[in-house]
């Protein structure tokens, strides 16, 4: 029952393999498995996700983790070195998985090409970097023919300068010199003992017995059939398993049928190639990068969202089933699947082979799918279609159509197929109309279908058939032509261009001064080797216990009773804690608002996911199982409010001034899950005297809990590093810390809390959904005279930081535009959902989104180009005042805008877009360019402070402490750079151990893009002596410790007057994006991205923050979608339901430019904060998509003024491109709701 991941981390102590999602959907736990293959007579290497791999299935295999390929103590592997030097490791939590995927590729193919790398990393997710620096490091293993000499070319061995990318100011982001060569002798050999055993073969059935599961592994087919006869209800497994079955079997050890032999008239290679040609890469589930999946497993899972069944059924495939009594052959069609997850196989049968017949002349086959993400995502709808036409004729002989994702099983519209092929019908336009009408009647999609989007699914049924019709029609025109894979429109080949212009270092700056120079992340190497420790990597404390949260299953209810008796009787369970066990206060006070740690009976629960209690046990698994046995009795209360209630809050907006035109619109922007790779948690260790306690915690704000009723000086918080934060580890971790500390206090033992991904998403929530309503008045030239904007946010059940987030939205509602009469109001709506909290941008992306929507709608309504409308409304001059009367100079902002237009070739690309749209009906392109003005720092002035402690030792080494927390933003690295310059010592002599409240107390959160400003200035102003005079100072009894304190600017806002200097300074930028949409499916792809910014960086290695922020914004505005049920339950809880951008979603061309000679006298060494601003640039994709949709609607004679909510998912894009197919679909009650 135990999986490889838990064995490696908890029993072997190899914590380099990370636990992130627990469902095989992120790749953080990737390891390499090696086996001896009898058929090939060689050792094969492949990657697996350790979180899904049952340990017992690895009998006879060798497992290599990131620790096994290299370390700082022995020798780095080139993969580890290059990802670190290329700045491809930020928070570092995904890095070991990336390293192992690339390492396995190199073991199989020492000289890969770019497509090999893309395939190898397709299953690995990164939330920080935007993937570019990872690719930059790994493509150094490619030859120049496949990667381009300077990684900026188009291939073919051309130099980047030949490709037009030459610029005298271009600098390398990392040095390619002195890379460790790829040395095969460094690789671990396959253990000879395992090879001998594999060649000999035991010939016996292996039996593994666990606490709840028994696994039997046969060595040949006869043994398998005999075991299946004896245990007919036991399922077969290969890599993934369903825990809880009493008897399970594994065929992974069966050499001759491990991969399920495919008996077909063509070679297996041809079969695989054909499927890859027919389908987009992501749809071939068995070819997942962590490929222990099989064709047989895909079919027998009987899940309609898997793509193979619809394709194979359309191909007239047959299944050969085998049992102890003999074999039989059945056709693969809808009858094989009587219900969801069920097949017609008898309990004692197994799938022996799959037969796919040769195609014949006159046969046309196509497969289609649409998913939330191009790769590593289950399809929303998939389809396989085949038509056979008479030779030299258009008469239809047969038609096979199969759909997945429109019902609980595979669906075939038999009546439609019969009608179309009857009466010697020819393939023509009259057929199309009748077929669509028949499909509408026959294929019915339930409104309650899991996953929702039933209207979209029904539309895809028609759209897929129409695409098939067009495909066949086109093929008939070129009947003799050969179709190549490269011409298929869904094939995605990764090509990332990067033209970056980092800050130039002055010639007068000493070579030993690291400020402004590319500096590798100070923990980059350790993160690449797996040696870097996160809170859950710390070794167990003797007698350590584990806590699991018990959460509410009701959105609004009174707690009648909590019965823990059944749970407490389970073995290994220690205690159950709730509000009555809190020795101090069960309430946390946050700016005059109160939040409960545990829900109290008198108050009740306010959302699904609210913490009611916690179960403490001797192991994680026992705590989890026992928590499920806690019985809570509720009394439901009314009302249950889940959505932003605006009907009763609509305010009549009076005319502000006279103007030519006025319009009233609204835009809805959905929330976003942080999806940091490391889930939240901590370890609470009581010290046994004076009520002292240490908390080893992953937090952006080292708070101490008041729940114990003891003073803060007795609780010490230690923060080594975070596996990502993005604002989500500021407030929410406080409640988890309190719960864990209470458990440690009650038991007197160390207690570890580590949330599962699903619980983390349920309890901690994410970015606030916003609704913006606005009325705007403008002149005929596009000049906006007045705008009245009302913001509504869904704050959840408690206030959390919602008021501050609304403040930031209002303070950013002007963006780059001077609007003479601008009024904004913000309302935080209390609902019965988990409290929404801080997220990268902190309300800025929502506020900016609404004003850009205003500009976009004005352009559409006035018939002007969006670029012109934005230009005529921009701030101009040397001194301007924001709508809250803060002075600033827009010169750099205007320079960014002009250079972005020039570098992106906006005008010529706009003409190309218009030309493309005039020539294509069902594919459209759009382009959008936006400026940005983003405030840096906290508007609450007291947060703008930083502190540091510098200790110098007698040997000249330096130890630095500061109040910031390292979460991938490189704050430690930048602090080292500052200290190196100030103290005039090399960075190698300076060390930062951790963030600790015992050394630097009362620190502000590491947030608001202000961490480096605060910490850097604190390190800069400390008065420590130069280490070269250490001995003299020591003998003179002079202190070798110094503190530095930075008191930031007095930012404030007088909300009564609506004015104030809200921010320390502003960061400027501009971005241009071009997209292409498929009007029939809603699929989109980003063609090109150009970002021009006035960001200055202490080290240009942090350029990837711009790219990482943009990619996270890409997810916010186009991919990431949270779903709640009508009763308030979060439905998207895990990597399989919630999709963040993957490598395949990165633009095919991504150009980032930094503005030269942009000075910022306010911040440390003229730099600017870049943590948050780039995220909003993802909205350029949204507005480019909206422009493309408008072009499609224009072709259909529809209005180009239409609502489009964010994110612009495939479903929303498709339904906005209204046409005859969408009009054939009837609306009904939704499966989920917009909150």
UniProtKB/TrEMBL annotation:
- Positions of substrate binding: 842
InterPro entries attached to this UniProt entry: 2Fe-2S-bd, 2Fe-2S-bd_dom_sf, 2Fe-2S_ferredoxin-like_sf, 2Fe-2S_ferredoxin-type, 2Fe2S_fd_BS, Ald_Oxase/Xan_DH_a/b, Ald_Oxase/Xan_DH_a/b_sf, Ald_Oxase/xanthine_DH-like
What GO molecular-function term can you cite, just one? Answer: flavin adenine dinucleotide binding
**Binding note for cofactor:** Binds 2 [2Fe-2S] clusters.
Which residues take part in binding Mo-molybdopterin? Answer: 700, 726, 840, 1008
The highest taxon in the source lineage is Eukaryota
Per UniProt, residues of the 2Fe-2S ferredoxin-type domain are 1-69
One Pfam family, please name it.
Fer2_2
Residues annotated as the enzyme's active site: 1172
Q: Which residues bind [2Fe-2S] cluster 1?
A: 21, 26, 29, 51
Which keywords has UniProt assigned to this entry?
2Fe-2S, FAD, Flavoprotein, Iron, Iron-sulfur, Metal-binding, Molybdenum, NAD, Oxidoreductase
Q: What cofactor does this protein call for?
A: [2Fe-2S] cluster; Mo-molybdopterin; FAD
Q: What is this protein called?
A: 2Fe-2S ferredoxin-type domain-containing protein
Q: Which organism is it from?
A: Periophthalmus magnuspinnatus
Lineage summary = Eukaryota, Metazoa, Chordata, Craniata, Vertebrata
